[in-house]
From TrEMBL:
Recorded GO MF terms: DNA binding; sigma factor activity
Segments forming domain RNA polymerase sigma-70 region: 29-93
Keyword Flavoprotein attributed: no
Name of the protein: Sigma-70 family RNA polymerase sigma factor
Occurrences of domain RNA polymerase sigma factor 70 region 4 type (ranges): 129-179
InterPro entries with a match to the protein in the record: RNA_pol_sigma-70-like (IPR039425), RNA_pol_sigma-70_dom (IPR014284), RNA_pol_sigma70_r2 (IPR007627), RNA_pol_sigma70_r4_t2 (IPR013249), RNA_pol_sigma_r2 (IPR013325), RNA_pol_sigma_r3/r4-like (IPR013324), WH-like_DNA-bd_sf (IPR036388)
Family: Belongs to the sigma-70 factor family. ECF subfamily.
GO biological process: DNA-templated transcription initiation
Alphabetical list of Pfam families matching this protein: Sigma70_r2, Sigma70_r4_2
UniProtKB keywords: Sigma factor, Transcription, Transcription regulation
Keyword Transcription listed: yes
UniProt source species: Pelagihabitans pacificus
Length: 187
């Protein structure tokens, strides 16, 4: 146990220095813990996933503030819990406030259809890859499409999705991991 704890601290130290592989390792190691925690709280897969993405985004953005005297998982769960509380408060305000925002949400969902399909079908390998990508949830499809098929930068994707850059990075990490699992299970 002590060896794995030392390894975890080494990974965290690398993440504090901006190492993207370390961030990916932390995401892989703790995703199920945070997601499972939120799934129990929200009882909604989409909310649990969104909150988990926001959790890792915020954690990676503020990793310099992590105090090693506390467990990393505990730190992540605390961030996750606070994000959920903020979300619940915001939803209560929205319900009590005006209804104008809900129409925008519907329009945003309807606009998520991929536009590059026709172009990708011309090459067989890309068409096969696209079929795998289509097995992902729409928000993961979109971020992969923007990054790898439209070749947008993280900043451009963040602007287009109206999300912080760290959210985009976490979504992309998660999307790549899920895509790899889909491809592995199909082979």
């Amino acid at each position: 146990m002590e060896k794995s704890e030392n390894t975890l601290q080494a990974i965290i130290k690398k993440a504090k220095m901006g190492n993207q592989i370390a961030f990916s390792m932390l995401l892989d190691r703790f995703w199920n813990d945070v997601y499972g925690f939120q799934l129990k709280r929200t009882q909604n897969e989409n909310d649990a996933e969104d909150i988990s993405i926001q959790t890792f985004s915020k954690a990676f953005d503020k990793i310099d503030t992590y105090d090693e005297s506390y467990g990393f998982k505990t730190w992540l769960i605390t961030i996750s819990k606070n994000i959920h509380i903020d979300l619940v408060r915001k939803r209560k305000r929205d319900i009590l406030g005006t209804d104008g925002g809900s129409n925008e949400a519907v329009k945003k969902v309807l606009d998520d259809a991929p536009t590059a399909e026709d172009r990708l079908i011309t090459e067989q390998n890309l068409a096969t890859l696209l079929q795998y990508v289509k097995k992902l949830k729409p928000h993961y499809q979109e971020v992969i499409n923007l990054r790898y098929f439209q070749e947008l930068s993280y900043a451009d994707i963040a602007e287009q999705l109206n999300e912080p850059i760290n959210n985009v990075k976490v979504k992309l990490l998660r999307a790549k991991k899920l895509l790899a699992e889909v491809i592995k299970n199909r082979s």
